[in-house]
Amino acid sequence: TVRGIHSPRILELGSGLRVRLLGVRAAQGREEEAVAYLGRILDGQKVFLRYDSIKHDADNILLCYLYLSNRLFINGRLIQEGLADLDGEFPCAKLARMKIRQKVSNG
């Protein structure tokens, strides 16, 4: 479960572990809305993490793709909802999938 949401891409899990969502960065002017959205959809939900080739950022925060138990892809959903932009700072195997979601959200 998620214990805290520090930003649209930095979350704290129930275990105290901080994770960073791969491939997303806050959309300009929508950070508060994105945090509120995450709070609603993650509240009380069990989450699952998947990883890519690079496991940690420079601050030693675990990089991940976040999923709900119903397989909802949280990283992609933020982009699809227009609450986050694509971020290519780290290699991201799911970047193409998220680009498609961004095109859908932009119409």
Detailed description of the structure:
The strands form two sheets. A five-stranded mixed beta sheet has the order 1-2-3-6-5, covered by helices on one side. A two-stranded antiparallel sheet has the order 4-7. The chain is built from three helices and seven strands; from the N terminus they run ββββαββαβα. It has 107 residues and is of the alpha+beta class.
Name some characteristics of this structure.
107 residues; five-stranded mixed beta sheet; alpha+beta; 7 strands; two-stranded antiparallel ribbon; 3 helices
SSE topology:
Blueprint: E1 2-5, E2 10-13, E3 18-21, E4 24-26, H1 31-42, E5 47-50, E6 62-68, H2 74-80, E7 84-86, H3 95-106
Q: Shape, please?
A: globular
Order of helices and strands: EEEEHEEHEH
Overall strand count: 7
Distance between the termini: 33 Å
Strand order of the largest sheet: 1-2-3-6-5
Beta-strand content bin: 25-35%
Category by helix and strand content: alpha+beta
Question: How many DSSP helices?
Answer: 3
Radius of gyration: 13 Å
Helix content: 25-40%
Mean pLDDT: 89
Query: Which regions contain 5 or more consecutive residues with pLDDT less than 50?
Result: none
Sheet with most strands: 5 strands, mixed
What's the quick description here?
This protein has 107 residues and is α+β, with helices and mostly antiparallel strands.
